[in-house]
Amino acid sequence: MARFIITIDGPAASGKSTVARLVAAKLGATFLDTGAMYRAATLAAMLDGADLTDQKRILDVLDDTVFEFDATPDGMLVQIDGVDATAQIRDPKVTANARYVACLAPARQRLVDMQRRFAEAYGKVVTEGRDQGTVAFPDADVKFYLTADLNERARRRQAELKTKGVIQTDDEIRQAILKRDQSDENRAVGPLKPANDAVIVDTTDLTIDEVVEKLVDCVNTRRSK
Ligand code: C5P
């Protein structure tokens, strides 16, 4: 099978995961949620009782843990040492703590290697995260960068948390998003930024279906050239 990589990067709650999953389904590709990898690594360290500022301990946890990421029609099934952690990695505490792993260069390198192995195994992949077009797959076939204004992203995150029974105030959600943006944009390794050749899509006033259609049209146009 010919290799075909589409990257979708962007800030927290910009709709990347939902869009990437639907675009992958339309194109007959496999979806990769790289945020799930940072979350799984963070949860493994938390379950280990590690001090998250102890970089050596985090790397030891990564080396000693078996992570499995499997694409399913609903998203990604995440297993940590054989135990399903798909729901637990979405806990707001894990979300807030993900920055410790995300800022650690050797941890990022291990996760980027995992992402490349995933792409090798599946061949045709739509991958989403922060550094997919810039670091993990600089030679991707098509790169997208999704944005949306803060109020809209907070509204989306609130709707998502409600379906999971998680209660947070609008202000807590807004602050958590801002804090993550700041950490993601300012870290020294794999910072959040559009690749020079990324197509930038502002999704603030678009429905999910409209964003999916836009991306699929763009991919098909590029492929027919
Ligand atoms: O996308 P998601 O919200 O699940 O990502 C969780 C965290 O993992 C992000 O806030 C970011 O710090 C980190 N991440 C990253 N690089 C990626 C994907 C996620 O640093 N490619």
What this model shows, in words?
The protein is an alpha/beta fold and 225 residues long. The chain has one domain: P-loop containing nucleotide triphosphate hydrolases (Rossmann fold). The protein contains 9 helices and 8 strands. The strands form 2 sheets. The chain has a 5-stranded parallel β-sheet with strand order 2-6-1-7-8, with helices on both faces. Strands 3-4-5 form a 3-stranded antiparallel β-sheet, with helices on one face. The protein is globular, with a radius of gyration of 17 Å. Bound molecules: cytidine-5'-monophosphate (C5P). Cytidine-5'-monophosphate (C5P) binds next to helix 2, helix 4 and helix 8.
What average pLDDT do the residues reach?
Answer: 95
Backbone shape:
globular
CATH topology: Rossmann fold
The tally of domains stands at 1
Please give the CATH class: Alpha Beta
CATH architecture, by name, is 3-Layer(aba) Sandwich
How much β-strand is present in the residues?
A: 15-25%
Give the strand order, joined by hyphens, for the main sheet.
2-6-1-7-8
User: Class by helix and strand content?
Assistant: alpha/beta
Q: How many helical elements?
A: 9
Measure the end-to-end span.
20 Å
Rg of Cα set? 17 Å
Hetero groups in this structure are: cytidine-5'-monophosphate
The helicity comes to 40-55%
Order of helices and strands: EHEHHEEEHHEHEHHEH
Task: Specify the CATH homologous superfamily.
Answer: P-loop containing nucleotide triphosphate hydrolases
Give the total of beta strands: 8
Uncertain runs = none
Largest sheet: 5 strands, parallel
